[in-house]
Write a structure and sequence with these properties.
Largest sheet: 9 strands, parallel
Number of helices: 1
Shape: globular
Number of strands: 25
Order of helices and strands: EHEEEEEEEEEEEEEEEEEEEEEEEE
Distance between the termini: 101 Å
Strand order of the largest sheet: 1-2-5-8-11-14-17-20-23
Radius of gyration: 22 Å
Length: 294
Amino acid sequence: GTNYQDLISFSTISPQDVYVSKSGDDLTGDGGQTMPFTTVQKALDTVAANGIIHVLAGTYTEDLTWPAKSGLTLTSVSPNNYQQFIIRGSSTALTIAQPVSATIQGMTFTGTGTGLRISNASAQVTIDHTAVSGNTSYGINSDGLLNIINSLVVRNSGVSGININNGQVQMAHTTVADNSGYGLNNGTSGIVNITANIFWGNNTQLNNTGTLQINYSVVQGGYTVTAITTLDPKLVATSYAIAFGSSAIDLLNSPITIDITNEIRPDGALADAGAYEYRAPRITTYAPSRDASG
């Protein structure tokens, strides 16, 4: 007789939207909003190509490996609150070794090692509304094609906040500060284009043996181009927002219309350099009240 079991094709459907929560479960969860996973790695392994991993608030102690799936987005559920969504690595918080396109937004990467490692030269990675902070080795170590927008690379204690080996990087409205080594180190084959960034408080702001262009930025101690300012950006402790009187205020016309907290750019006539747009205090005036007698 016919073996009907042989006619059945079993398949596992990888969803386009996968959720992760500290209260989730990798065994009983399905990655949906009501039954999320508990680890980001499980979500990365499960999501379909071009899908989105939605991460709920919490600290996730993991060393993540990006899968061979292109078009993925790893995002917090509230990208303007990157401080609440933390990947804490013990070696490398996130490794991308596949020739994929990837987007990361609204996250913080920290830990005892490197924050982000992009080792594939064909990987195209966008980092947005993200902090790479407090890592004991590199903040970002890249050989790929990297786009960094509205982000912070701060307080990393290794060789370099950002290390470009053979890759290319476009950086806009990013603050690179208080790294104990280089703010940015660009190797002989690296190609770096910087617009509207702040480099301040690093042991060495910029080290370049490759190709580097920088415009409309704040660089402590200056650099070999004129389209920068060396005056104090007045960074606010811990947050790295800019305070009144900052040299980063009103530097350029920018196509980027929001900052790291989703505040509108520009707040004034021109946009500010760095991850944060300065918000001038709003003064509300009231018409004088009139009594009943007029």
